[in-house]
Amino acid sequence: MVRRRTKTCGNMETCAKRLESVDMRGTIKTRFGNIPAHDIASFRRAVLLDDSCFMLTMDFLMNQNGIGGVNPLYSRMVDEDMKRNLIDSTSPSQRENRIVLLPVYLDKHWGGVVFNFDDNKLVFYDPMQTKSMKPLEWS
């Protein structure tokens, strides 16, 4: 089992150096289950993130105060009751959550919806959008 550090990175260079020192033979425990450490190697190569990297990132964000989220695996489920139970298991709608992250699987890549309750806005984000496209925003 890889021991998780709670200290955050100051910049991308610092983060990259820390990732270089991660032992890729262990596993990382997250609220979504154990993730093989070698799966986060994608972070080192700056390629699109796979499911494991995405879940690790979601887990990290959800460990911050005021951020809730939905288990990314919900988007892969067909049964609606199982989907609802999985969503409920992460308690995304807790009153103390100022932001809730909803991962969305879009044609072979991950995107998401961010619900911001501080200003009552919702933003849909697709990382494959071009610079000329603005994220969709609803108030």
Secondary structure elements and pairings:
Blueprint: H1 12-20, E1 27-30, E2 33-36, H2 41-45, H3 51-62, E3 67-69, H4 80-89, E4 99-106, E5 109-116, E6 121-125, E7 136-138
Parallel strand pairs: 3-4
Antiparallel strand pairs: 1-2, 4-5, 5-6, 6-7
Note down, in words, how this protein is organized.
The protein is α+β, with helices and mostly antiparallel strands. The chain folds into two domains: 1-48, no CATH class; 64-138, no CATH class. The model is unreliable at 1-6 (pLDDT under 50). The strands form two sheets. It has a five-stranded mixed β-sheet, with helices on one face. Strand 1 and strand 2 form a beta hairpin. The chain contains four helices and seven strands. It is 26% helix and 25% strand. The chain has helices at 12-20, 41-45, 51-62, 80-89; strands at residues 27-30, 33-36, 67-69, 99-106, 109-116, 121-125, 136-138. It comes from Phytophthora nicotianae P1569. This is Ubiquitin-like protease family profile domain-containing protein.
Alpha-beta classification: alpha+beta
Q: How big is the Rg?
A: 16 Å
Low-confidence segments, given as residue ranges, are 1-6
Average pLDDT, to the nearest integer? 73
Instruction: Return the string of H and E elements.
Output: HEEHHEHEEEE
User: Widest sheet: strand order?
Assistant: 3-4-5-6-7
Based on the model shown, name its key terms.
single chain; 139 residues; alpha+beta; 5-stranded mixed beta sheet; two-stranded antiparallel ribbon; 4 helices; 7 strands; disordered N terminus; Papain-like_cys_pep_sf; Ubiquitin-like protease family profile domain-containing protein
